Amino acid sequence: MGPRSRAVFVAAGCALACAATNWNVSALEQRFPALAGINSHQLGASTPYLLPSRGVLTLFLCRWPRGPAIPVSLPPDATAEERRLLEMALGAWEGAGLGIRFAIAEPLARGIEIRFAPGAETESQPQPETPQAGITFADCAVDPEALTNLPGPVLPARIVFATVWLHRDGRDMLGRRVAHTPEELIGTALHELGHALGFQGHPRRGDTVMNASVDSVRRIGRRVKAGTHFTDTTLRALYSVSSGAVVRQVTVSPGRTAPVDRMASAARRLALSGPILRVGDRAARLDWRDSGGRVYPLLILGIPELLRAPETLRVHALRSTAGLLSSAFPSP
Ligand SMILES: [Zn+2]
Fold first, then answer.
1. Whole-number Cα distances in Å, 58 to 147, 231, 266, 304
2. Is residue 321 included in any domain, yes or no?
3. How many folded domains does the chain comprise?
4. How high is the mean pLDDT of the chain?
5. Is 10 helix (H, G, I), strand (E, B) or coil?
6. Which residue from 30, 71, 177, 250 has the highest number of Cβ atoms inside 10 Å of its Cβ?
7. How much distance in Å is there from the Cα of 16 to the middle of ligand 1?
8. The pLDDT value given to residue 2
């Protein structure tokens, strides 16, 4: 997990063609009264996690369990000042009414890993979603039995790991490299930590640090740095419902979920762990892993189009996965 599997980036990025809501939030409010009590949240604009299985595409929310502190690893190369700013961002989320807390810990088997992206821009490193920002991968673990039974209203799923990449500098309007101000670093860290906490997507309206607007992220960073109390109704909304809460289920032709069904069967036969799910604004993936740590991903592309027309679902097997499937299920 983390920066090791970089072959296909599935991360939050700003899609311009986002709808105001991606699914029907009022149906969820009826099931979770605490959600109905939160005003002006943008949870309906989140991109749900996707589980295709046995002819059904299930869209659901995923977050960290409340209770145990979430382990966090800070960048080993952070200066004392950068460390202080990152701890301010973590403290702001702890005080935001989500019921979560963090504990600085090394090394991480589960938790949130925060790293500074290397300075040189190369093809092989994660590119920020905007010139100012960072990039985050948030891994949602789904219990394998969810793939053998038709999912109920709440999937057995929770976030188990996230990697946050922050950039120390961005580009100005003339393309020149400029170092981030402390306010920008805090604002970006708050935004990326919001993804790490399980909120994917970028609402186009609302007072949330998950908003796509760089100005709004910078403004919130300035407020937090000045010591103003921080809260975010959109993340509070996510944490007011159960992790794994299903927001939509769509019947699709069984052939469209077949790659996942075959992987689930191969995983049982070969004792693979998984699946671990990620979703970004444009793509989603499901990973299984063998005992040697080798990853077998399935990929779903075109997320905005899929949310509009779920019956068009297509699941793609990357080469390692296709190889595993053809050896597990040889053609007659
Ligand atoms: Zn983002």
1. 11, 30, 21, 15
2. no
3. 1
4. 89
5. coil
6. 71
7. 13
8. 34
